[in-house]
Amino acid sequence: MTPLRGIAALWVVVFHFSEIVAKFVSLKYSLLLSKGYLMVDLFFILSGFIMIHVYRKKFQSGLSSKNFREFIVARFARVYPLHFFTLMILILLVASSGGWNIVQDPKAISTNLLLLHSFGVHKIFTWNVPSWSISAEWWAYMVFPAIVLFIYRKKGLAVLVLSLFVVLSYLAIMFWIPRVNIFDPNAPARQNLDVTFDYGFLRGLAGFISGLLLYRVYEEGLLRKIFQHDVAAIISVLLAILSMHFGLNDGFTIIFFAAIVFAFALNNGKLHALCNKRIPQYLGKISYSIYLIQIFPVIPIFAGLKLPGLVYTDQSATTGFWIGVGYCLIYILIVTGLASLTYYTLEKPSRKFINRKWGRETMPVYA
After folding, report:
1. Which of 53, 174, 223, 343 could be a cystine partner for 289, CB 3.0 to 4.6 Å?
2. Following DSSP, what letter does each residue of 13-68 receive, concatenated?
3. Whole-structure pTM over 0.70, yes or no?
4. In Å, how far are 69, 107, 139, 293, 299 from 347, measured between CA atoms?
């Protein structure tokens, strides 16, 4: 399961490279890169699945302040130190250059610190833009113990209610909730799941609960014989790729993502052996650092750096496929290198210190 984190994180990196640095795959050929925002939904589903696997025994029979405190301390130790660090670095960089703007907005510092920046508080994404999903994830953690108790006490009713919530949430985001294109207010509303600063909390909770429900299917042993084989994982991955490539409704891709998580969790074939190799495991281990550090190498682009081989317009840049691939690989290497540094010097030590000081150092690295 761990390598899925690494794959999703790197895909988001490629997506942001295409959106920020240069588009190198035309939309008329494929929507695969432009649909990269959906990798965050894979994160949410995977997170819910792993959380209930690791913590269900703490909450399935009841809630206690001791167990809740231990859980929250562990989750705080996991997500907050690196978020705080990246936010502080960005604030220092902006303050030293006087580059305050609508994204690097001093009024948004408090909401970012309190992880409230996925609740529509601001009119645009702010500061370390990918961290909106950390906000959404954090508040999913807050309700997680109660949801676990609900699932194991009410069972069938819980599955029905939560499934209905997930479906209605996704439909609301795509079709019902009023949405405005921040770059072109007169443009038609997009019928997709690409919400971040506005309804990101709802998107995150829907994905997280999807992971919880998926785990119940896993726990009951349903479809185990089908999904434990390599072919099930391959088909699930291909369906997700094709869904994004052809630009199918995001709801279909979510279903295929759930199938991928389920297949990877059950697999006992060659895929399982491949996922246990050193490189896939390592990328999964540093995936959180990859995700939050990715903005820093493109700061020179925001500052006006022009790269050779790119064709610039007022709002974007394009380039040929192979030039784009080359630049993108360099970007991935830089991000991975920085992520390795922050993982070993900040993320891992901070997590150990906080758990040792205020919690319990018992949780596996993938949680």
Report:
1. 343
2. HHHHIIIII-B-S-TTT--TTTTGGGHHHHHHHHHHHHHHHHHHHHHSS---HHHH
3. yes
4. 21, 27, 20, 12, 22
Instruction: Answer for the pair 295, 130: CB distance below 8 angstroms, yes or no.
Output: yes
- Token readout for 341 is 């540094």
Q: Among candidates 172, 175, 192, which has minimal Cα distance to 31?
A: 192
Higher pLDDT, 364 or 81: 81
Residues found in the chain? 367
Cβ-contact 241, 175 below 8 angstroms:
no
Mean pLDDT, residues 280-301 taken together: 93
For residue 274, what are its two tokens?
């491949």
Q: What angle do CA 110, 116, 118 make, to 5 degrees?
A: 130
Instruction: Note the pLDDT of residue 363.
Output: 52
How crowded is residue 168: how many other Cβ atoms within 10 Å of its Cβ?
A: 13
The pair of structure tokens assigned to 313 is: 């317009």
Tell me how far apart the terminal alpha carbons of the chain are, to the nearest angstrom: 11
Cα gap 135→87, rounded to integer Å: 13
Contact 284, 4 (CB under 8 A): yes
Please state, in angstroms and as integers, the Cα–Cα distance from residue 200 to each residue in 13, 145, 178, 327, following that order. 19, 21, 14, 30
Q: What is the mean pLDDT of residues 92-104?
A: 86
- d(C-alpha 317, C-alpha 328), whole Å: 14
pLDDT digits (tens, 9 = 90+) for 232-255: 999 999 999 999 999 999 999 999
8 A C-beta contact, residue 41 and residue 207: yes
CA-based nearest residue to 253, from 74, 31, 22, 95: 31
For the segment 143-172, the average pLDDT, to the nearest whole number, is: 95
- Residue 318 is given by DSSP the state E
**Separation CA 267–CA 215 (nearest Å):** 14
| C-alpha to C-alpha distance for 131 and 110, rounded to whole angstroms | 14
- Report the candidate in 279, 300, 299 with the shortest Cα–Cα distance to residue 10: 279
Q: Map residue 187 onto helix, strand or coil.
A: coil
Question: What confidence score (pLDDT) does residue 6 get?
Answer: 93
- Cα→Cα distances 112→44, 103, 229, 289, Å: 19, 12, 43, 17
